[in-house]
Design a protein that fits this description.
Length: about 280
């Protein structure tokens, strides 16, 4: 692909007409402009494609739409398809309904380069905190980590991240080595971000920025949203409102764990997942 930049931002869209323009505008307003935005639409049936094509026509030097005949893949495999198109040194992941604060790319990249110097030659992932907002961008919680009881320091403990993801995809930047150890993303991966965090924790280093650099919009169509930690009945399996039923999510989580531990037994895996949620609740 032409217009090579240091950073590829991967945006997976699906019926995102309501907020997509705000998200793209916030990327265009970044203090660091050394990026290319790659978009793949997952067979939307609203005006998402029209909005994307308008931005592509106006910013063809830095925004690209991937068009293929693969149809609807779902969020994780849509991002896998985008990863196949990326050739940049660094990759970021973008949701269609959030807002990035102007320094997000620059601050994340600074920590990425610092971490690469400290841990040379290994996969590196950097993620940030978020501010939880409603559909009108009114603040619900200043820190998603505090809101959900997330402890980002646990991201380098493979056993812990196998049962509890602590990095949100729309905050993540990975280097080329992290992409290599994380792809292809298998169909059983619960979400692309969780899969990537597990693999980087296993082979490299995860670092975090303790600043809220994304307005994490919560609305009726979130695939997986922010769930307040004390609401244990709803947070044990965050995102049940998405396409996965509870039995499917349990089985997919088990299969994902088995990818890294072929001897993992079903019941202990599920019990560890529940225990991690209970610990999260007590924080």
């Amino acid at each position: 692909m032409s217009n090579q930049r240091s950073i590829d931002i991967l945006l997976a869209t699906y019926n995102g007409q309501a907020y997509l323009g705000e998200q793209i505008d916030s990327i265009l307003a970044q203090s660091n402009q050394d990026w290319r935005l790659i978009i793949r639409d997952d067979a939307s049936d609203d005006d998402t494609l029209s909005i994307v094509n308008d931005y592509v026509s106006r910013y063809s030097d830095r925004i690209t739409l991937i068009e293929d005949s693969e149809g609807r893949l779902g969020a994780s495999l849509n991002f896998q398809r985008l990863l196949e198109e990326s050739s940049a040194e660094y990759i970021m992941f973008c949701d269609q309904d959030d807002v990035w604060l102007p320094g997000k790319i620059a601050i994340t990249l600074d920590l990425m380069k610092t971490t690469e110097q400290e841990y040379p030659g290994v996969p590196v992932l950097v993620h940030t905190d978020l501010t939880v907002v409603d559909s009108k961008l009114k603040t619900i919680a200043q820190s998603t980590w505090r809101y959900q009881g997330t402890v980002p320091e646990t991201a380098n403990d493979v056993d812990k991240v196998l049962h509890q993801n602590v990095a949100t995809g729309c905050t993540m930047m990975i280097n080329e080595k992290a992409k290599m150890v994380s792809t292809p993303i298998p169909p059983e991966a619960v979400m692309h971000d969780w899969w990537i965090v597990i693999n980087v924790a296993k082979h490299g280093r995860v670092a975090h920025v303790p600043q809220q650099l994304v307005l994490y919009r919560q609305h009726s169509n979130n695939a997986v949203g922010a769930v307040k930690a004390p609401r244990i009945r709803t947070c044990i399996w965050a995102g049940l409102k998405n396409k996965f039923s509870l039995p499917t999510r349990i089985m997919n989580h088990y299969r994902m764990v088995r990818q890294h531990d072929p001897n993992a037994a079903f019941l202990p895996t599920v019990l560890k997942k529940i225990a991690s949620k209970l610990r999260q609740r007590r924080r």
